[in-house]
UniProtKB/TrEMBL annotation:
It catalyses: tRNA(Asn) + L-asparagine + ATP = L-asparaginyl-tRNA(Asn) + AMP + diphosphate + H(+). Residues 130-430 form the Aminoacyl-transfer RNA synthetases class-II family profile domain. The keyword Cytoplasm applies. HAMAP family: Asn_tRNA_synth. Homodimer. This is Asparagine--tRNA ligase. GO terms for cellular component: cytoplasm. GO terms for biological process: asparaginyl-tRNA aminoacylation. Its EC number is 6.1.1.22. Coiled coil: none annotated. It is an enzyme of class 6 (ligase). SUPFAM superfamilies: Class II aaRS and biotin synthetases, Nucleic acid-binding proteins.
């Protein structure tokens, strides 16, 4: 019977065949241990010299790392194993021999591993991170489907920008100028006026010359927009959404979290509701923590976000930022003209902002005023203005960065490990 490593626990006592690669091996005089992987998981294959033909045992002892094989054997329980089983091998068939595999069990530098990213993703740690990424993607789609959102795909090539063109990749679109999208939000607002509650899930691009552990040039964003939803309701949806994603990973990725050594007690408490701190109070908190240079009207950097998050054991919303440091489309606070109805959700443990969101301006005249203040042209943005002209309604939205969320839940230090093939400031290979 042919099966996969993930399903071996369903075949205790049976003889099965799996296709696999040799992740590692060790041997003594009379027994060889093969660490097998097949993409669905890892399992140990035990090869006993007295139980198989001599040439098979010699093959097992000499087999090289990352050689691909078919392995036949009996599935036995093994409580010490993460998978709960091991495979007592009766036959090995080599499919393709691997020679001089460059990534060995010894330590390698980051640049070496990044140059060999196409191979590095085979390792147990990277496998675990990418499986957690997959579960987050599943949980995202599950949450929105179960809550009656419609998935809409905005364009990647655009003629304008959601937040200005200074950090956009420029290209030519035949005879016109075009940009790689840094956000699908404006288009999602149009979709919300047609379909009510919508979300996009796709790649975005920021031409920022940043080398921090939180930044990628190409990354994936989840961007919901909701008609007839105001700021407070949007915050409630955001905390329910993040809670669902975290609890799904805890439930379905136990082995991967264990592989990564993740302290899951720090995640188990991530359940709605989340604490909220106004921007005004956040400034006071930072001054009390020794950030003497921070002043009202300044944007927060990574050290500021980390310092605020340290006071909480859940993600925390920072609400009502100054109007002048936020995007043109954010709705002013009804009681103050210097702040807007927005919030950033800051993850614990120093992982920074994972969500940015706001209620959007729905008043036509106010949006026209914003156009003038920000120098937006009718040629590029007429269609966006028309959303306020033809049946405008209160509406809100937010964006969650997938890779930062993967880093947080996996407990990895740098976002470069959270996407299969990262695009960094000085890296376009492989």
């Amino acid at each position: 019977m042919k099966t996969t490593i993930a399903k071996l626990k369903n075949h205790i006592g049976e003889e099965v065949t799996i296709g696999a690669w040799i992740a590692n091996k060790r041997s003594s005089g009379k027994i060889a241990f093969l660490q097998l992987r097949d993409g669905t998981g890892f399992v140990q294959g035990v090869v006993v010299k007295s139980d198989i033909p001599e040439e098979q045992f010699l093959l097992a002892k000499g087999i090289t790392q990352e050689t691909s094989v078919y392995v036949t054997g009996s599935v036995q329980t093994d409580e010490r194993s993460q998978s709960g089983v091991e495979l007592v091998v009766s036959k090995i068939q080599v499919i393709s021999e691997s020679q001089d595999y460059p990534i060995t069990p010894k330590e390698h530098g980051t640049e070496f591993l990044m140059d060999h990213r196409h191979l590095w993703i085979r390792s147990k740690r990277q496998h675990a991170v990418l499986k957690i990424r997959n579960e987050i993607i599943h949980a995202v789609n599950e949450f929105f489907y179960n809550n009656d959102f419609v998935k809409v795909d905005p364009p990647i090539l655009t003629g304008s920008s959601a937040e200005g063109t200074t950090s956009l990749f420029h290209t030519k679109y035949f005879e016109e100028d075009a940009y790689l999208s840094q956000s699908g939000q404006l288009y999602m607002e149009a979709a919300a006026m047609a379909l009510g509650k919508v979300y996009s899930f796709g790649p975005t691009f920021r031409a920022e010359k940043s080398k921090t552990r939180r930044h990628l040039i190409e990354f994936w964003m989840i961007e919901p927009e909701m008609a007839f939803v105001e700021h407070e309701e949007s915050l409630q949806i955001q905390e329910q959404f993040v809670s669902h994603v975290v609890q799904s990973v805890l439930e379905r990725c136990k082995a991967e979290l264990q592989t990564l050594g993740r302290d899951v007690t720090k995640l188990e408490n991530v359940k709605a509701p989340f604490p909220r701190v106004s921007y005004d109070d956040a400034i006071k908190m930072l001054k009390e923590k020794g950030f003497d240079d921070i002043e009202w009207g300044d944007d927060f950097g990574a050290p500021h976000e980390t310092a605020i998050a340290e006071s909480f054991d859940k993600p925390v919303f920072i609400t009502n930022y100054p109007k002048d440091i936020k995007a043109f489309y954010m709705k002013p606070h009804p009681e103050r003209d210097d702040v807007v109805l927005c919030a950033d959700l800051i993850a614990p443990e120093g992982y920074g902002e994972i969500i940015g969101g706001s209620q959007r301006i729905d008043d036509l005249e106010l949006m026209r005023q914003r156009y003038e203040e920000h120098g937006l042209t009718d040629d590029a943005y007429k269609w966006y203005l028309e959303l306020r002209q033809y049946g405008s309604v209160p509406h809100s939205g937010f964006g969650l960065g997938l890779e930062r969320t993967v880093a947080w839940l996996s407990g990895v230090e740098h976002v470069r490990e959270t996407i299969p093939f990262p695009r960094l400031l000085n890296r376009l290979y492989p």
